[in-house]
Amino acid sequence: MAPAFLPPSAPAKRRTAVLALTGAALFAAAPAFAQDFNAAPPNAPDQRPAFPGQTRAPIIADDIALETTTLADGFVNPWGMDELPDGTWLVTEKPGRMRLVSAEGAVSDPIAGLPEVMAERQGGLLDVVVNDDFAETRRVWWSYAEPRGSGTNATAVATGTLSPDGTQMTDVRVVFRQEPAWRSSAHFGSRLVFDDEGALFITTGDRSLPEPRQLAQDVSTDLGKVVRIDPDGGAAEGNPAIEGGRPEIWSYGHRNLQSAALAPDGALWTVEHGPRGGDELNRPEAGRNYGWPIITYGLDYSGRPIGEGITEKAGMEQPVYYWDPVIAPSGMAFYEGDLFPEWEGSILIGGLRSGNLVRLTLEDGRVSGEARYLDGIGRVRDVAVARDGSIHLLTDAENGALIRVTPAE
Q1: What is the pLDDT of residues 319-328, one digit of tens each?
Q2: Total domains present in the chain
Q3: What is the rounded CA–CA span in Å between residue 72 and residue 16?
Q4: Separation between Cα atoms, residue 208 and residue 204, nearest integer Å
Q5: I need a surface site. Which of 165, 228, 290, 353 has the fewest CB within 10 A?
Q6: pLDDT grade, residue 203 (50/70/90)?
Q7: Which domain holds residue 380?
Q8: So which residues are the catalytic ones?
Q9: CATH for 252
Q10: Distance between CA 197 and CA 266 in Å, rounded?
């Protein structure tokens, strides 16, 4: 039985519309002298970076024209995606649905067999990822806000086997549960990244509220952490030994990590949401403390300092880069491909608040330049580089879209 893909002629309530060639759009990236995102005043004008180039890197002069083609739209707050070997995409929707999108843009009915999710505010069905052996195993991993009873919930990761016809997930089981659960509907983190050794990185959030945010510093909990597990469950081999810490913890002192990707050299990089200012790019190292909520380059939403209002402290790591004002980062990929040779090795990040695609260049482990593209495209929730070198974006909206980005001919 073939996957239940729905053609563009299907009723609107049961399909995702596919734009033909007439749906393609051209975006011309403004040259450096016309871009003014570095001119916006910071929320915390009295703070100073710890080293040159830690924020407001030079704007990259790049006037490349980009072509965008909407492969599918009509998704309800899509959150995560991953490409299968045949060019099909798995796409999640926060209300609890996962669908297949063919390379031609046909969209399947929701895949059956997924567990219940807590779909409120920032909660719901979140990231999805497959490993390199998908063609043989058909295994899929996904993260979600799991209801735990008595109004509590937390980030969980499950795995299952996608049926040959693409209609159902079987052999479903949970391989990670964030502890403790909390009565909150925010800051689930939730990006999933396989490393070169086959272990699975999971990013978590601090659950946002003043009380649980303190647990980002408590290594007996999974709040505000990067964890690294065996894909079948349990801590991965080679994790750091942290005194009093849970064995799955890789790094701690994070706020809400919704961007993560493996660099070409195998290192994990993340971007986490700051409050008012203080979005952070980090390269999390084993056993290190990244400071939240003790040090931050952001302010509380009230405009008041967080804690003592400090940005540095002994034993706590500095971000490689930070933004103030924020971009509200979600989704991340290192560019490796043939379609954008000038972008090779760049970091691509989705901007929810900035409403565009952010590109960073690196030199000796530091950010050497920043550019932004596709202004006005919407809240970019996820970013991926396809096997053919094109860039795919998910826009987070009631009518969210999967969009393919290529250089304009």
Answers
A1: 999 999 999 9
A2: 1
A3: 6
A4: 11
A5: 165
A6: very high
A7: 5-407
A8: 187
A9: 2.120.10.30
A10: 9
